[in-house]
Every structure is written in structure tokens, then in C-alpha cells.
């Protein structure tokens, strides 16, 4: 994916997206849209049963959604779950039967502030717009608001191109040198982690700059070009808790 500064590109029609976050328990209708969109994408890949499509997370007060909306339609999303010692992270539910040390790792870092990035999806309608990249890094941008210093995830071969530049590193101590068969035997997933979500020393420069812009202005309005597509982005990434 190539992202260029707006002034370098000839005049082209812009597509507008709102990038917003919300706590799951506060917005059941938006959660329902998220679940429907995610399940539809999973079905496209032949996955009909997966932890992240289970709507029990909608009742978790430490689950947060970051979504992309175009003309009132939710077309992509990602979640952040903060570990609280009560609700297991989706990653724990998915792979702890294979390697229980994953849960031990999470438990050891709850006091520090840890969580999981999960549930990434985007509709076929917006493939090529770079929305997955925007969502992955927008979710990292909100972590200081949640008190999360260490972030875990499960990454597949085809998603490492997103997660590696964002700062995630494969944790080889789990599974088969980091590998798990998940969500089905057909796929390989890896436990990945950002060890310092505040300073992001393992993240690439482009990702660090993007995250810093949002952290400086949670209501940022930005114009970028992705794959010759001009995007007008309006962010609302202020986390609202009771």
C-alpha cells in the first residue's frame, strides 16, 4: 500500500470516511453492525465459527471498537480489549487450549496494563482504500487513554504486512515457535506483541507519525492518498467511559 501526501497527487475525487471509537457496552446497535460486517467477511474466507465473531464481547466493559463509516454505513472495524482479570482476551480463548502459557503471560502483565488488538475486518466494497492500515494504527493511537502499555494480537501470514510496521513482534515462546492453527486448521496464526505502546520503538516511522498526529488531536481531519485514491478522514477517537 502506497500512501502519499495529498499535494503530490493530481486532483481526484475524494472518498470521505469517519473513523470513530466507542465502548462496546454503550452502543449495542453499533456493535450489532460490527458483528454483522465481521461475520460476512469471515464467511468470504470460509470461516464460519471463530471466537471474534461471538457477540459475548459486546457485554465486556473493557472492549472498545474502532470503526470506519462511509455515508452512514459501517464498512470496517477493529477492537481493543483491555485485560481485567475477569474477561479472558479473545486470544486466550482461541489458543490457550493449545498453549496455556498464553494466559499466564497475560495475567502477569495485567497490573502494567495490557490488552489485545483483534477482530479486524473491512468490507469488499472498500478493498484497496487502506482502511485496514488506518484502523490498525488508529487503535494503537487510543491505547494511552485506556492505560494499555503492552498490546498483544494474533497475526496471520497475510496480515503481517500490517502488523510488523505497526510495531508488533512475533512471540516465539508460544505454540510451535510462535505458530498456531487458528481459526481453523487451514490457517496459521502467530502471537504478536508491541512491548511499549507509548513510545512505539519497534514501529516504522510512517506508523509512528500517523499515531502521533492522532494522539495530538483526537478529532483530527486529514487528507491522504492511498493507491491513487484520495481519502478525507474525520477522526473521533476520544474514549468515553462512565
Protein described:
By secondary structure, this protein is of the alpha+beta class. The chain has one domain: Aminopeptidase, CATH 3.40.630.30. The protein is built from seven helices and eleven strands. The chain has helices at residues 28-44, 90-95, 101-108, 131-141, 143-146, 160-166, 205-216, and strands spanning 3-5, 14-23, 63-70, 73-82, 114-122, 150-156, 169-170, 179-181, 188-194, 221-226, 229-236. Strands 1, 2, 3, 4, 5, 6, 7, 8, 9, 10 and 11 form an eleven-stranded mixed β-sheet that branches. The relative contact order is 0.19. Mean pLDDT is 88; it is low at 1-10.
Rg is 17 Å
Tell me the count of domains: 1
Which structural category do the helix and sheet elements fall into?
Answer: alpha+beta
What is the CATH topology descriptor? Aminopeptidase
How far apart the termini lie comes to 38 Å
Q: Specify the CATH class.
A: Alpha Beta
How do the strands and helices of this protein lay out in sequence?
Elements: E1 3-5, E2 14-23, H1 28-44, E3 63-70, E4 73-82, H2 90-95, H3 101-108, E5 114-122, H4 131-141, H5 143-146, E6 150-156, H6 160-166, E7 169-170, E8 179-181, E9 188-194, H7 205-216, E10 221-226, E11 229-236
Parallel strand pairs: 2-11, 5-6
Antiparallel strand pairs: 1-10, 2-3, 3-4, 4-5, 6-9, 7-9, 8-9, 10-11
Amino acid at each position: 500500500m502506497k500512501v502519499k501526501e495529498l499535494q503530490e497527487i493530481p486532483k481526484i475525487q475524494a472518498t470521505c470516511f469517519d473513523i470513530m471509537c466507542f465502548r462496546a457496552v454503550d452502543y449495542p446497535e453499533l456493535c450489532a453492525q460490527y458483528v454483522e460486517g465481521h461475520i460476512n467477511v469471515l464467511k468470504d474466507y470460509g470461516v464460519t465459527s471463530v471466537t471474534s465473531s461471538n457477540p459475548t464481547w459486546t457485554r465486556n466493559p473493557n472492549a472498545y471498537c474502532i470503526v470506519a463509516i462511509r455515508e452512514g454505513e459501517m464498512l470496517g472495524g477493529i477492537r481493543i480489549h483491555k485485560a481485567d482479570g475477569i474477561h479472558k482476551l479473545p486470544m486466550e480463548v482461541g489458543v490457550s487450549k493449545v498453549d496455556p502459557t498464553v494466559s499466564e503471560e497475560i495475567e502477569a502483565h495485567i497490573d502494567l496494563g495490557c490488552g489485545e488488538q483483534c477482530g479486524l475486518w473491512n468490507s469488499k466494497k472498500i478493498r484497496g482504500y487502506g482502511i485496514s492500515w488506518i484502523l490498525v494504527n488508529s487503535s494503537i493511537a487510543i491505547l494511552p487513554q485506556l492505560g494499555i502499555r503492552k498490546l498483544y494480537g494474533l497475526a496471520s501470514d497475510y496480515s503481517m504486512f500490517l502488523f510488523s510496521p505497526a510495531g508488533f513482534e512475533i512471540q516465539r515462546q508460544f505454540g510451535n515457535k510462535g505458530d498456531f492453527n487458528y481459526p481453523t486448521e487451514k490457517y496459521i496464526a502467530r502471537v504478536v506483541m508491541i512491548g511499549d505502546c507509548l513510545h512505539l520503538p519497534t514501529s516504522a516511522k510512517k506508523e509512528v507519525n500517523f499515531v502521533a498526529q492522532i494522539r495530538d488531536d483526537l478529532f483530527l481531519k486529514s487528507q491522504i492518498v492511498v493507491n491513487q485514491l484520495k481519502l478525507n478522514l474525520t477522526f473521533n477517537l476520544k474514549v468515553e467511559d462512565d
